[in-house]
Write a sequence for this structure.
């Protein structure tokens, strides 16, 4: 197994952004969605992005945002990737990718194997698919609820694009999630918070360390079986 990528999403303070970078996170996510407790202003996002720039990939998470808003983020924050976490159709993702000249990731909410088919229309557009747990009924925020789904439905999934696993992950269960899903990239938000929307530097370090440990274990198992 190649290196397992780690994304810490919903960062909103200098301290926790620096903690994510120092811990070795591969991607850091900034949320641009006012209904989310992790939402950051453009001013704060620019400062936070500068802490990570050149050390981790900067991901801008948006939810059904119009093109003008996306362009402003692209110009000011200069993310490496835009994550579409709403009901954006493939055509909108494709148009944004061309106009923003950036890579894109599309989040797909899942709870059962049949939901995986929702990723198919995006495979020609998205550079990466993120499989996240469906939000609780009635929620107006699409992610960050700390709810897992059945990770085994992703096992042996054969896609022409890499995928990332999200939803209910934390330092205590991420190894199991990786083993059951076969994921080579994981995303965490609420699992590294001491309260909703408030990241904890210690939990961030613990999560990244747990993922790195899972990767080493997977390599050891692979070598023993070969």
């Amino acid at each position: 197994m190649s290196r397992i990528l780690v994304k810490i999403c919903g960062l909103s303070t200098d301290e926790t952004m620096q903690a994510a970078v120092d811990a070795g996170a591969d991607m850091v996510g900034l949320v641009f969605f006012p209904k989310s407790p992790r939402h950051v202003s453009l001013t704060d996002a620019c400062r936070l992005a500068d802490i990570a720039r050149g050390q981790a990939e900067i991901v801008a998470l948006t939810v059904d945002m119009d093109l003008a808003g996306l362009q402003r983020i692209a110009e000011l924050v200069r993310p490496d990737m835009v994550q579409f976490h709403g009901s954006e159709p493939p055509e909108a993702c494709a148009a944004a990718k061309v106009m923003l000249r950036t890579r894109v990731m599309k989040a797909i909410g899942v709870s059962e194997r049949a939901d995986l088919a929702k990723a198919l229309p995006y495979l020609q557009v998205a550079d990466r698919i993120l499989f996240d747990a469906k939000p609780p009924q009635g929620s107006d925020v699409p992610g960050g609820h700390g709810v897992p789904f059945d990770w085994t439905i992703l096992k042996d999934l054969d896609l022409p694009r890499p995928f990332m696993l999200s939803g209910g992950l934390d330092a205590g269960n991420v190894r199991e999630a990786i083993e059951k899903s076969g994921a080579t990239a994981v995303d965490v938000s609420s699992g590294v918070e001491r309260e909703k929307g408030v990241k904890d530097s210690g939990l961030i370090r613990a999560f990244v360390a747990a993922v790195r440990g899972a990767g080493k274990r997977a390599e050891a198992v692979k070598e023993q079986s070969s």
In short: The helical segments are 14-23, 42-52, 67-76, 90-100, 174-181, 201-225.
